[in-house]
Amino acid sequence: DVSALLGHWQLTTDPNMVASNLVFASLVLAVSALKLPSYTPACSRNDPKLNECVVRHGQQAIPQFINGDPKYRVPKLDPLTINQLSVRQGTRQVGISLQVRDCQIYGLRNAKFISARTDLKKRHIEWDFKIPSLQIQGFYNISGKVLILPISGFGKANITINDLSITYKYDWMLV
């Protein structure tokens, strides 16, 4: 059932992927062959306009799931609470390690499902989303290095990402 699928879903630590995974979790019900909630109609796998159906029904699902749905184990999505995000970028010479804990993520309610590409034979999907503004609040700890200059700090974080474009790529297996 859907709750089993979402019950094992885990967030990535990449902030860009956090948003896409959250939107994916709320939209997985729109394209799944599993039992759907009454407010999320299914798309027929034989529909010649399957991708358009996925986008239409997926966009309709976002406002339905934004406050969460305990029956399907969908958490409240705006704000979404995440214990910790970790980002590691770069090399030993130029790189950073950033952790943000006790995160509140705002802006997912404004996500727009732009397009979908579904390949049922290859069991592959690609979904494109736009989020006008995503805000992450929490407490940060950063360390890194730019050549010989060390970087370190900690404190309150308020990260705003404007005009965020996300492409979510997913391969699935039937079990």
Short description:
The chain is of the alpha+beta class and 175 residues long. The chain is built from three helices and five strands, in the order H-H-H-E-E-E-E-E.
Give the SSE map.
Layout (H helix, E strand, L loop, with lengths): L1 H6 L7 H17 L18 H16 L14 E11 L3 E13 L5 E8 L4 E23 L2 E23 L4
Rg (CA only): 18 Å
Question: Which percent range fits the helix content?
Answer: 10-25%
The CATH architecture = Super Roll
Q: Structural class from helices and strands?
A: alpha+beta
CA-based shape? elongated
How many distinct folded domains?
A: 1
What's the rounded overall pLDDT mean?
A: 82
Order of helices and strands: HHHEEEEE
Ends distance: 12 Å
Quickly name the level 1 CATH class.
Alpha Beta
Low-confidence stretches: 1-16, 29-33
Largest sheet: 5 strands, antiparallel
CATH fold node name: Bactericidal permeability-increasing protein, domain 1
| Range of strand content | 35-45%
Instruction: Please count the beta strands (DSSP E, at least 2 residues each).
Output: 5
CATH homologous superfamily caption: TULIP domain
InterPro entries: Haemolymph_juvenile_hormone-bd, To_sf
Pfam family, one: JHBP
GO cellular component, one term: extracellular space
3D architecture notes:
By secondary structure, the protein is of the alpha+beta class. It has a single domain (2-171), classed as Super Roll (Bactericidal permeability-increasing protein, domain 1), CATH 3.15.10.30. The protein has helices at residues 2-7, 15-31, 50-65; strands at residues 80-90, 94-106, 112-119, 124-146, 149-171. Strands 1, 2, 3, 4 and 5 form a five-stranded antiparallel sheet that branches. A hairpin with a 3-residue loop joins strand 1 (80-90) and strand 2 (94-106). The longest helix is centred in the N-terminal third of the chain and has 17 residues, at 15-31. Mean pLDDT is 82; it is low at 1-16 and 29-33.
